[in-house]
C-alpha cells in the first residue's frame, strides 16, 4: 500500500459493502485505524497509530506498507529501514491465521466524541472470549436493521415532556441498573455532590434524561443518541437506563401492551382540505357506530360506570386477528393502520 492508501471494513460477515472502519496509510508515514462516517467518508479520531512518522527527519518516516505472501505486515521507511507491525512467521501450510490484531479492547480504545463508537448509536459493546466485540441493544431499544448486529439501536417508546410531572415520570417509567457500564459522552448535566438515589430520581423525573451515570458523588445525565457504550469490569460506573413500564410487542410497531389489555386509537388523516376531512370523518363515524351497535352488548354494572360501545382486545387477540400485523393498510402522522378480522358475537368483522 502506498501513501494515502485506504482499506475499508465490510459491514458484516455476509454484507461486503464498505463499513464504518478504515485502515489508512497517511501522507506523514503513519498507518492508522479509525471509524468513519459512511455517507461522507469523513474520518473520525484514530484509535491506533503505527508511530512511523518523524517530524524532525522525514527520512525516518514511512513510505510504503507491505503485507507479503507469508503474512508479514511491515512499514518501509524512506531511509530503507523496516518497522514490523506483525511478527515474522513462516506458514508452510498456507492456512489463514491471525498474525496481528489491533486494538486489544476496541470497546474502550475508541474514545472520540464524534461517531457512535465500536457499536451503533445507543448500543453497548463488550468483548467475547476471543476479544471480539459483541454489540447489544439495552432494554427498551431494538436494532434499526435486524440484519446488522453492529448497527444502531432505536428507542421502542417515545418520551414526551408533555406527560411529565413531579410524580408522573415515576408512574410511566422505570430504571434498569447496569453495573460497569458507561456511555461517556452526551452529558447535558453534571450534579455533585449527588447520592445514587438522588441520581436515579433526577433522571426518572426529567423528560430529557435517557440515562444517568453515577460514580462516587458524581451524577451525569445524558441525552439521546448515546454513543461509545461499553460494558467492562474496569468501567467503574453504574448506569441507570430509563425505559417505559410494560412490555413491548415485537411484531406490532407502535403498540404497547399494558396489564394484558391494548387500547388502540387510530387517527385517519384523509383528504387535503378541512371540509373533505370532516365529511369523511362523519361518514366513518356513522359506519363505525352502526356496526358496533349490532355487535356489542351494553355493560351492566355499577351505576357510576359510564356505558361504552368501544371494545377492548388483548394483545394476543390483535396479533391473531391481524395475522402477526402483516397486512399494513397505511401510515399516518399518529400511527400505523393494520387490517384484521375478529369474531364478535359469532360474526366475523373487519378490524382496522
Entry keywords:
5 helices, five-stranded antiparallel beta sheet, alpha+beta, single chain, 352 residues, 23 strands
Q: Give a count of the beta strands, DSSP E runs of length 2 or more.
A: 23
How far is it from the N-terminal to the C-terminal residue, by CA?
Answer: 60 Å
Question: Which structural category fits the helices and strands?
Answer: alpha+beta
Taking pLDDT < 50 over at least 5 consecutive residues as the criterion, the unreliable ranges are 247-285, 294-307
Helix content: 10-25%
Main sheet attributes: strand count, strand direction, barrel closure: 5 strands, antiparallel
Mean pLDDT figure: 79
* Coarse morphology: globular
Number of helices: 5
Beta-strand portion reads: 25-35%
- Gyration radius (Cα, Å) is 28 Å
- Give the ordered list of helices and strands: EEEEEEEEHEEEEHEEEHEEEEHHEEEE
List the helices and strands and how they pair.
Layout: E1 6-10, E2 18-25, E3 31-37, E4 42-43, E5 48-49, E6 62-67, E7 73-77, E8 82-84, H1 106-109, E9 124-127, E10 133-136, E11 141-143, E12 153-155, H2 168-172, E13 173-179, E14 181-182, E15 187-191, H3 196-204, E16 211-215, E17 218-222, E18 230-231, E19 238-244, H4 274-295, H5 315-321, E20 328-332, E21 335-338, E22 340-344, E23 347-351
Antiparallel strand pairs: 1-2, 2-3, 3-4, 3-5, 6-7, 7-8, 9-10, 11-12, 13-19, 14-18, 15-17, 16-17, 16-19, 20-21, 22-23
